[in-house]
Amino acid sequence: MKKWGFFLPALMSVVMVGCSTTPEQPADKPDTSKAETTQPENAATTQPAEKPESELSPMEKHPNVKPKPMPTVKPKQPKAPETVSVGEKNADGKLILGQKEWVHIEGLDVNVVARIDTGATTSSVSAIDIVAFERDGKKWVKFKLAHDGKESKELELPVISTKFIRQSSSDETFERYVVEGWIKVGDLKVKTPFTLADRTHMDFGLLLGRSFFRDVAIVDVSREFVQPKVSLDASK
Prior knowledge:
Retropepsin-like aspartic endopeptidase domain-containing protein; Asp_endopeptidase; alpha+beta; two-stranded parallel sheet; six-stranded mixed β-barrel; Cathepsin D, subunit A, domain 1; Peptidase_aspartic_dom_sf
């Protein structure tokens, strides 16, 4: 019994010391991380400020009115160039010629003044250095056109016929070769027969007879230079 009386007070002291050293647990704090934020029921809802009517667009003023489509603007078409009449013609489309006309002779590259002779059958052109020769069994002629001091290069053409001309002052006859050549009057370009003759001493280096204008032109002897000059650049 004496032994238990000694140990009992010692045991009680140990228990008391253990209780005094146990740390106190902190009081639980409320968890605010999950707390819901509540809005007051009577809080006013913020509305955007209204624009004055003067600043509203047409769509905002009249939201139910559809905008009118923009009109389609068609590009202007360029005007067609006007047709310029080259020279006078009658109702049948034939050229009107005066008793004198500007004529372009192919090979001479110059406009010459021609006399329109209604009394002559065949046309005549001024030529020099006329020499006949034979080629492939046919008669040809070489010559140069001459007018107002200008000469063409030497030309060679087949002879389509020969005419004998008698001078009124004598019984002597002259042989004239007839060839075909190109001439242009106004907008008319034709191949017509010519007699080759030296006309350098005459007033007109070119005489146009009925064989030229019979089917393509009419002559008004009261007029001159009805048709314009031929452009030398356009004739090349």
